[in-house]
Design brief:
Helix 1 (18-29) packs parallel to helix 2, helix 1 (18-29) packs across helix 8 (223-234) and helix 4 runs parallel beside helix 5 (158-178). This protein has helices at residues 18-29, 44-56, 71-85, 108-136, 158-178, 199-203, 205-213, 223-234; strands at 9-12, 33-38, 60-65, 90-93, 141-145, 184-190, 193-194, 221-222, 245-248. It is an alpha/beta fold. It contains eight helices and nine strands. Strands 3-2-1-4-5-6-9 form a seven-stranded parallel β-sheet, with helices on both faces. Strands 7-8 form a two-stranded parallel ribbon. The N and C termini lie far apart (44 Å). The chain has one domain: NAD(P)-binding Rossmann-like Domain (Rossmann fold, 3-Layer(aba) Sandwich), CATH 3.40.50.720. Bound molecules: beta-D-glucopyranose.
């Protein structure tokens, strides 16, 4: 279906688990050359499983360790990619972190950690990818994994919501700057998605029921739902899609409290 993704070189940050792992495997199935970035070796088995899936499907894979919040690690990630595969076509800034804390108890360290990974990490990744695209005069693609919380406020997650709100305007600004060169920059904003990170909270019956209340489609999504949109956004089918956010959330951003027709 996404024939043009064959042999494309795609970097995915935070590819060791969750949505990033699904991105990696799906691009592999489209026969892309996938660079799986991961931060810690606790994902070794999962990464190896993804590499096997990618290679069996006819794609190629390269593992590159690195912390996206460290400038030198991201520069190294792009360098290793270009050294190994000769080019870069698609950059997916996916690595993210979340942990709830009431605002009045949040330390500067806690705030900074989330901003550094979710926002600054995507800034460095985008900047380095754009540099590479411009050097090669290439019409590359950047996709950031954002969140419904780039628009829905989220109590106890002020750092997270701020990072994702910033990511939205960052993407829109960069897109306005580089669309003229054919570089397409867009965000995907997932809602409630089951991954190993959220499995526990969504298997709690009370949390699950409360979450479903906020989803018009009455269904929690999975990583494949997000990966499908990433494949589309990376492909030529999306050649006229610039500077936009695709919400993949079962309608969560659409004021579900109004479902009953009151108000
Ligand atoms: C978070 C999830 C949360 C969802 C909906 C996402 O950005 O990563 O933990 O369930 O937003 O609130």
């Amino acid at each position: 279906m996404f024939k043009d993704l064959e042999n494309k070189v795609v970097i995915i940050t935070g590819a060791g688990s969750g949505i990033g792992k699904s991105f990696a495997e799906n691009f592999g199935k489209a026969k892309s050359k996938v660079v799986l970035n991961y931060r810690s070796d606790k994902h070794d088995d999962s990464l190896q499983e993804s590499v096997d899936i990618i290679k069996q499907a006819g794609g190629d894979a390269l593992l590159v360790q690195g912390d996206v919040s460290k400038e030198e690690d991201v520069i190294n990630l792009i360098k290793q990619t270009v050294n190994h595969f000769g080019t870069l076509d698609i950059m997916i800034n996916n690595a993210g972190f979340e942990k709830p804390t009431p605002t009045h108890e949040m330390t500067l360290e806690e705030w900074q950690k989330v901003i550094d990974i979710n926002l600054t990490g995507a800034f460095i990744g985008s900047r380095e990818a754009i540099k590479q695209f411009r050097d090669e005069d290439k019409q590359g693609v950047i996709i950031n994994t954002s969140s419904v919380h780039d628009t829905i406020p989220w109590p106890n997650y002020v750092h997270y919501a701020s990072s994702k709100g910033g990511l939205k305007l960052m993407m829109e600004t960069m897109s306005m700057e580089y669309a003229q060169f054919g570089i397409r920059i867009n965000n995907i904003s997932p809602g409630a998605i089951v991954t190993e990170h959220t499995k526990e909270k969504f298997s709690d019956p009370k949390t699950r029921a409360e979450t479903l209340e906020m989803i018009p489609a009455k269904e929690i999504g999975d990583a494949q739902d997000i990966a499908n949109v990433a494949l589309f956004l990376a492909s030529d089918l999306a050649h006229y899609v610039h500077g936009t956010t695709i919400y993949v959330d079962g309608g969560m951003t659409n004021y579900p409290a109004f479902m009953g027709g009151k108000g």
